Amino acid sequence: MDPTSASPVMGSRPAFRLGPYTCVERLSVGPLGETFRAKIYGLGGLESVFAVKRLHPGLAGDERLLARLATLVRLAARVQHEALVRADGPEGDGLERWLASEYVHGLDLPHLVYALASRGERLAVDLAAVVVLDAARALGYAHGRTDLLADGVAHAGFSPQSVIVTAEGRVKVVDLCLPRALARTDWMADPHAATVVPYLSPEVLQEEPPQLASDVWSLGAVLWELLAVGAPFEPRDRDGLLAAVEAGPIGVPRDPALGEVARACLRLSPGARPTAMGLAEVLAHHLGERELGARSGLAGLAKRLIPRRATGMFQLPVLAGTPAPMPASPSGAMAKADAGRVTARFWLPPQATAEAARFPTAPERRRPTGQFPAFIPDRREIATAPTQAAPSAARLADAARVAGAAWAPAGGAP
Which of 49, 54, 233, 338 has its CA 20 to 30 A from that of 323? Predict the structure, then answer.
């Protein structure tokens, strides 16, 4: 989780099409592929935002791997948890294959650490504990799904890139069980696995199948790195990494008690490690009454580091040149937005009922993310436009244009 290596990963590059998706920003690179922020455009330019993982070229044509991946995607979809992000796919043809999932507006841990380091700051100890606590709870829930797999569902490739802190300060875990599709025998030989290798358990490095305890090792490695501000082990080759693992983690944790918790997760014997739920309970007990403050602090940090999506208001045309007040007057219109949903309500000015013909009269206008209900001229609230993706200024302007309204930017949601 070197902040200096995280900087160039996320950024703008020329947009390109991938099936129905327009990929506009690369977010990360991992063993399976590159992940992009992507859009699907609907009626009037309205857009839905997704995270699309384009598989590496060497994987896209491997039919056996794709079959394993499809099975794992279906398995992960059955593990429903608020902190787990599900994926769909794989889709595409022999040249290009991809997985699509909901787009989580936030920063993964490497980029969060980088954003703080660029300001001369570190992630506070209690905030680091909350991040690992929530990730451990999510994985612990998956581990407990013995109704799906006899031993429970393991992530099998957990790393800092697997954790996203949202703009609201919530923790999300991505790619549950998907790395298992790779069936790697030598992770060190894969140049795309460099972001995962430092967090792999010794049994996985020794070519054994990943276990639930392997996820706990990875959680401990991430916790140690956040505490010691450095990776617990420096990968060279497999033998060198295994020797480093046996010697113990390097660096000095900023909180000795939490350092011991991380060391318990990094025990060489899988059976000697705590469970993921056990780790979550220990972290919650360590935080005690400080947990609420730590969560508030993480939300404040996210608000400071992660830009919000653009919001604004709509203004409907009125008769006789009379301006419709904004934002709250019933003779105007408004759009209320947050990072995950925007709902625009358009009000008909009382003196403008004669202009009903100017507005859509079809029962509804369907689009991928929602619909415009019928226009009813004798009601003040004449249309509601729900969407599932965070709004942008351009998107709200398009929605206003579809509804026959004028666009006016605003500093925040009304």
Answer: 338
